[in-house]
Amino acid sequence: MSAATGSAPVTAPAPPAPATAGDRERPVRTIPMPRLVHVELRKMLDTRAGRWLLVAIGVLVVGALAILLVQDGGEHPLGDYLQATTLPTALLLPVVGILAVTSEWSQRTALVTFTLEPRRARVAWAKVAASLLVGVGAVAVSFALAVAAHGSAIALRGATGDWNLAGTVWLGAAGYVLLGLLQGLGFGMLLRNTPAAVVLYYALPTGWSILGSLWARAASVGEWLDLNRTMEPLFSGSLSAEQWARLGTSVGLWVVLPLAVGMWWITRAEVK
Prior knowledge:
Blueprint: H1 33-45, H2 48-70, H3 78-106, H4 110-116, H5 120-157, H6 167-191, H7 194-214, H8 216-225, H9 227-231, H10 241-266
Helix pairs in contact: 1-5, 2-3, 3-5, 3-6, 5-6, 6-7, 6-10, 7-8
Protein name: ABC transporter permease
Region (Disordered): 1-27
Keywords: Membrane, Transmembrane, Transmembrane helix
């Protein structure tokens, strides 16, 4: 008996169907910078720590204005009211800048942030922009409260109006607040630890004062490197060439350098 063996004809595979518009890979869209800034603003203001810090700033400002209104019948120039609103703001607002960075690393949400936006430099710049927006808003509120308090002293306490205040004084007061905020942000980026950044930020002026009282040379060096001392002339509205040089030196050391090194380190630090 014989068996006939055969094989099925081999057919060539069908050519692939042409890709349609829906099958093509969609282009990757970059997250817009305004959206990143908006997210960082919410991180700064939608937290319990951020809100209580703003409340504390408001309480200090209102307390300082109340003292001026009661003292000497409110007979103070507008510049005194301006200092009463900007100095408490400059005292606590840098902590908001510190928390803008350190809270994300201490609560371990940085992994989520850098997963959604792997380019860490854009996130760092968004934090800088958000901090400046908060600082500008705080400065505007401080200026408005100073003007309102001086007007209330004239209307309610019968004080003599003294509205003569140069525009450079307003700019100097704004610079005082914003430079302190950027310094806090730089320390937060550099250390990424809330207690260490806060302690270092507030311990530096005290350390300069103690060292200057014990060592005369440290006092002379502090005239160039102590940021609080070099920023004091900003409220006068006019700085000499030497004062500008001192301010630039201290700002470069305590604001620009921590920000630059901190941003560089954020792009390379291990996220856990």
